[in-house]
Amino acid sequence: MNLTEQIKQKALDLGFDIVGVTDASPVSTQHARTFSQWLAAGCAGGMHYMSRNLDKRLDPAKLLPGAKSIIVVGLNYEPSVDDKQRQGGGKVALYAQYEDYHPFIKTRLHELAQFIQSSTTEDMRFKVCVDSVPIAERAFATRAALGFIGKNHMLINPSLGCRLFLGEIVTTLNLEPDTPGSGDCGDCSLCIEACPTGALSPDGQFDARRCINYLTIEYKGQIPPDLAAGMADQIFGCEKCIEVCPYQKQAPPCHNSDFEFHPERARLDLERILDMDQKSFDSAFADSPINRPGLDALKRNARICLQNARTRRP
Q1: What is the C-alpha separation between 210 and 231, in angstroms, rounded?
Q2: Between helices 101-119 and 3-13, what is the axis angle to 10°?
Q3: By three-state DSSP, how is residue 294 classified?
Q4: Is 207 in a helix, a strand, or coil?
Q5: Distances from the Cα of 91 to the Cαs of 111, 120, 199, 267, in angstroms?
Q6: 216 touches 238 (CB < 8 A)
Q7: At 64, is the secondary structure helix, strand, or coil?
Q8: pTM of whole model > 0.90?
């Protein structure tokens, strides 16, 4: 095996489900223009970090001088546990029922980088990226042949669906790039129809300001009544645009047994959340993405879920 093939095999050995390689050239002019227009229209809402370091996000060489290649990995998080029968409380997006994926993926990417360094005599510099680093990861994932970006604006792999955590290693090594595949959603618009708040538009636009994921996790203000009603019982995140995707319905379950899944977090006791103090919140969710919005925002979400439950009662 050449070095690129060895890297891919090592990534799979480390527990990733899919891996690809692309060159470190900037994203396409079209992608850069579309993203800039999206930001200018205010669709990112209060996520001002999306517009910071824009040059680095779109051009890996600005993130790591001398960058030549990007290794992109994907971790499938489709569970083997069916929580559809669970009722009551506040519903938590499935990805947040796992341990925090950031350190999980980052640790394994550093292991992969160490393997690469031990496998080559070339001077290698690298940058590990997991979500919080400014990089257009879905654009580079498509270029690395991991899938295509669907109408739900998620990366969709035809075999694994769209429940994929992504991570990247930007490196100065010149590796053999993969040939991007093809794929699209065709005439399917189930995700657009399923979105409770109209964040996804038939014209392909996505407005984060209307997205339940954004509202329950990133947004710190008072949620407008019409959008709050659309939250129903979602206390943290929303995956309705994923749940209806035909590719997701045939996806296999997560095979990585080291990635801890907590099915008991599928539904949170709303009254318990409202009674929590900071110490109990930190203790309960220290290892979880649920800690991201903070206690005040989670209590705000719990109050909305309770109000929605009262409204739905006959």
Answers
A1: 10
A2: 150
A3: coil
A4: coil
A5: 35, 47, 19, 5
A6: yes
A7: coil
A8: yes
Record the tokens describing residue 154, joined without a space.
Answer: 């998620």
Is 186 in contact with 158 (CB distance < 8 Å)?
no
pLDDT tens string 1-47: 899 999 999 999 999 999 999 999 999 999 999 999 999 999 999 99
For 209, phi and psi rounded to 5 degrees? -65, -20
Which strands, in side-by-side order, build the sheet including 267-268?
Answer: 234-236, 90-92, 267-268
Which residues are known catalytic residues?
131
Which own/partner pairs from 30-38 qualify as long-range (CB within 8 Å, at least 24 positions apart)? 31/58, 31/136, 31/139, 32/58, 35/136, 38/205, 38/206
Report the alpha-carbon angle 233-241-236, nearest 5: 35
Q: What is the CA radius of gyration of the chain?
A: 20
The tokens for 85 are 């029968």
